[in-house]
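Reading a protein record of the kind used here takes only a little practice. The record below shows the convention in full.

——
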Amino acid sequence: MILIAVLVLAFILFAVGFLYFWGINPGDMTIFLTTDLSYTLPSAIMLICVLLIGLLLGNGIHFLSAFIYSFRNWKGGRLLKKAEEIEAIYRSGVGRLLSGDMKQARALLKKALDRDPQRIDCYLALASVALQEGNPQEGIDLLKKALKIEPKGLEVLFKLALTYEESGRREEAMAVYKELLDGDVNNRKAMRALRDIQMDLGNWQDALELQKKILKISKSGSKADIEKQILLQLRYEVARNELENGKQDQAIEVCRDIIKRNVSFTPARVTLGDAYRQAGRDADAIRVYQDGYKALKRSVFLARLEDLYIDAEDPAALLAFYRSQMQVDSEDLLLKLYLGRLCLRLEMVDEAMQHLTDLESSGVDFSKLHLLLAEAQRRRNNIEEAVVEYQKALRIDGYLFLGFVCENCGAKFTEWSSRCPECKTWDSLVLPERKQIQDAKLIEEPKMIPHGSRES
């Protein structure tokens, strides 16, 4: 009732206003739509028409905008609901992938991809499923489809390159990493991956050039220090290759520089000595090997010195070096081992026994030490003592135990156990040579047939 009363009141006010306006504007107005078409109406009527047309246009535009807005909200709601459903399917597929259920993971991820063929993450997850199932080519095909959707996608490119690597297709992996670097010249991850492939292939110069670029864009800190160390290692490999190709001078120069930068890098010292020796500079080689052992206490330097002196038929000089070093450090057990072996080679059995026995009494226990002691005892004609040492070297006990090995993890044991103490596998301990014995066949010699018993 109130609404009707308001409408009636509004109509009355409009009518009064209209009559008033008409009364004070009694003239007519002519509107030309074309040169031949026109309309003549009272001014008040013309005004009302204009107002009505304006109201219609305004309300029409408003209703159209509201309709478009509502339609977009409805459509957006449907798309959002669809996206949420696809996301839920995708997450379930990834969950199955992580739990190892490849069959269900494939089905769910394929379903999500069918509903939205533009989802890159579905291609990546399906590629992972293919790789887990041992089908790298399928994974590569899926990743290539993803690249068609997103040609510069870093995640897809890295996944594709890694898949190529794991499949042994290094050249194709290198091509992908180079494509990555074409798009981002400072991508350190791609450079490191490409460098590692070059290292595996033995392309040390190419790896070195990449490492220089990596170091150039690396910030200071522990990671930069690691990159610097890798740079030295690659420089060393290049120098070693130069030495193999007969370029002793270049190898010597690089190795000397590497030693200045890292005095504890053993390979550079060894190769520097080798380069001197290859160049006929044995005195310099001896100095490098001796300084290397004094500084780092590595057995490789003693082995190199022994080879050099024995080849030169001058074991006395090597013996003098060993003895002089023993005076500097009488507790150098590594030197005692090499000195004892050298004395044994030179038939200085008593001195050899002294040094080798010092090692054994110090708690050192390994097969080759016992073999040296056994040989020393044999040369002394102490056969029983030599046999004992041989038994220790061969780990032979008095009961001649054959021992057991775990078929699952390879751990060795003297006693059998129902369960491997290392990998916890049941019923896995067997004789180490069981398979060899099982696969062998006893060759029987042909039996002699007594005369007269052969069938005709």
Q: What stands out?
A: Strands lie at 28-32, 38-42, 404-406, 412-413, 429-430. The two ends are 137 Å apart (CA to CA). Residues 32 and 38 are 4 Å apart (CA to CA). The chain has a mean pLDDT of 86.
